[in-house]
Amino acid sequence: MTAPAQAAGGGIPILGPLSLPARVATVGTVLIAAIAIVLEYVLHADPTIIFIVSAAAILGLAWIVGLSTERLGAISGPQVGGILNATFGNIAELIIAFFALQAGLIEVVKASITGSIIGNLLLVLGASVLIGGLKNGVQHFSRQVAGSNAALLVLAAVGLFIPAVFAASTASPTEGDLVEESVLVALLLMVGYVISLVFQFTNPTETLGGHEPTEGHGGPAWTGRVAIVVLLAAAGLLAVLSEILVGAIEPFIETFGLSEFFVGVILIPTIGNLAEHLVAVQLAYKNKMEFAMAVSFGSSLQVALFVAPVLVLLGLVVGQPMDLVFEPLEVAAVGVAVAISALIAFDGESNWLEGALLILVYVILAVSFFEFR
Q1: Which sign, positive or negative, has the C-alpha torsion 206, 209, 213, 219?
Q2: How far apart are alpha carbons 219 and 59 in whole angstroms?
Q3: In the chain, N or C: fewer CB atoms in 10 Å?
Q4: pLDDT-based confidence at 3, cuts 50/70/90?
Q5: What confidence tier does 205 reach under pLDDT thresholds 50, 70, 90?
Q6: Distance (Å, rounded) from C-alpha 114 to C-alpha 304?
Q7: 59: part of which helix (H) or strand (E)?
Q8: Does pLDDT of 87 surpass 70?
Q9: Can you give the pTM of this predicted structure?
Q10: Are 26 and 18 in contact (CB under 8 A)?
Q11: CB-CB contact of 295 with 279 (8 Å)
Q12: Cβ(61)–Cβ(33) under 8 Å?
């Protein structure tokens, strides 16, 4: 880092290694977070305004969490970095969902699970394929590796929706039966998550992006200590702002005439994962389509095998039992998203038309979710 760059950062270890736009975004995020806290706890402002401001702050904090985990991964090596990315990749959404669960907004939480999966596989992958295709033409990636990852996602989705099949095929199941079934499935899904991590670390070339050079993915030039401080501070602010956001969800829904279902499927996943989504698009633009697919498929797997099971178990802890019985529209939407993304992965190449069609399918589903009551 040159002296002028350090001076531009004001000598602050966090800001110094960042580019000018990144410094502006970081400072802006902290200011917006402070405004949201003041609006909630000091001014007791209109909940709709609080929802919008806190959502904007969470977007920025999710991006900062991504920077810190990326840097820690570059410092500690690919295996530890993989664990960090797997753990913190969906941390913003997990925190928001936890507070929604604690507040009894169980339908919002369940909808956010399916919303994350279809958002990653249709909107994120679609935008990546579209932008990458327009910039670079037909893009190629390992057909075998992408296909195996897509197959793993299919299996994860099937396991996630087993309780819904159980509910539909069992005569008058009780809520206790559904929760018990969901807890057992959640534990098995988490076993699958651990197994997938073991496979990823012991067979790095068999996972998306595992056999490509990783230069350019090291994050800002922070020391390990600074990166840890940034990660903990951002996670702490995320917790505070997520609680504020959740408290404003119901007034926000009433103001705009939305349903809890639409907020959970569309808005919450977008707020929690937008920063990660932008990374995938940037990778595709740089003709690193396999890395972009790794973000999309990897995040979906995290939701199916880790986030959803953790939320089921946390529901028992906070006294808000949650099952994994999803609405038929949710099951159909995830099935469509998984099937289409798998088809794209199996042929080893992508073009901008496929990306445009993926986005159109997402918009169609979003309209259906908006009308669903």
Answers
A1: negative
A2: 18
A3: C
A4: very low
A5: low
A6: 9
A7: helix 47-76
A8: no
A9: 0.86
A10: yes
A11: yes
A12: yes
